């Protein structure tokens, strides 16, 4: 792991520095990591009631001892203080229910408790916005992001049909609840008018060519003022 702050304390291999986990949706790649944390380690799991209900309905998550791992519901738009220095606020983001909860034709792009973004602020006033999954930029989300000092945003796919063309999947990005980076309706174009000071793509699929430092797609996002996140990346806020 390239992030020393997440390493166990020296001399205590069973130790974990994780004090809390904030979930932004119930997708497998967002919640399965809970099962990799120490079963005997106390920490809090924070999420909307809807997302917590996903954990409650699946007995595998009972591997996390509820006497040690508290499940703490967080309402949308309700500021929450974490520790001594951080305050967070959850807000709805256009998305959809996890694939394994789909019944019939799911609504895609609805703004509910199923998919959320997070504004994180430190006690010194520095802040950033975290949106790892987003189906579209709604008017409410545009208002939320415009002028933000730092935004970490969904960079899953470069093109909507990318996974289909490469034989890596059978669904478009839109069907999975992700807007593309490129194109007239993509995040590159949408953010051009938002005046965000620092923009960083996260949640990037391994089919997305922006991961390649020498690709024309990486050059395009860099020219538009974006950064591409990498393992061990550290962001200093001021």
Task: Describe the overall structure.
The protein is an alpha/beta fold and 238 residues long. 17% of the residues lie in helices and 20% in strands. It has a domain at 126-230: Ribonuclease Z/Hydroxyacylglutathione hydrolase-like (Metallo-beta-lactamase, Chain A, 4-Layer Sandwich), CATH 3.60.15.10. The chain has helices at 28-31, 49-56, 139-145, 162-165, 173-176, 187-191, 216-223, and strands at 20-22, 43-47, 69-73, 80-82, 86-92, 116-122, 127-131, 150-154, 198-202, 226-228. The strands form 2 sheets. Strands 4-5-6-7-8-9-10 form a 7-stranded mixed beta sheet. The chain has a 3-stranded parallel beta sheet with strand order 1-2-3. The longest helix has 8 residues, at 49-56. The chain is globular and about 50 Å long. The two termini are 26 Å apart. 30% of the residues are buried.
The number of strands is 10
Topology order in helix (H) and strand (E) letters? EHEHEEEEEHEHHHEHE
CATH H-level homologous superfamily name of the domain at 126-230: Ribonuclease Z/Hydroxyacylglutathione hydrolase-like
How far is the first residue's CA from the last residue's CA?
26 Å
**CATH class assignment of the domain at 126-230:** Alpha Beta
Share in β-strands: 15-25%
Which radius of gyration do the C-alpha atoms yield? 18 Å
Give the integer mean of the pLDDT values: 94
Stated plainly, the CATH topology of the domain at 126-230 is called Metallo-beta-lactamase, Chain A
| Spatial arrangement of strands, main beta sheet | 4-5-6-7-8-9-10
Judged by helices, strands and strand pairing, the structural class is alpha/beta
Give the count of helical stretches: 7
Looking at the overall shape, the CATH architecture of the domain at 126-230 is 4-Layer Sandwich
Instruction: Note the main sheet.
Output: 7 strands, mixed
**Unreliable residue runs:** none
What is the helical fraction, as a range of percent? 10-25%
Shape: globular
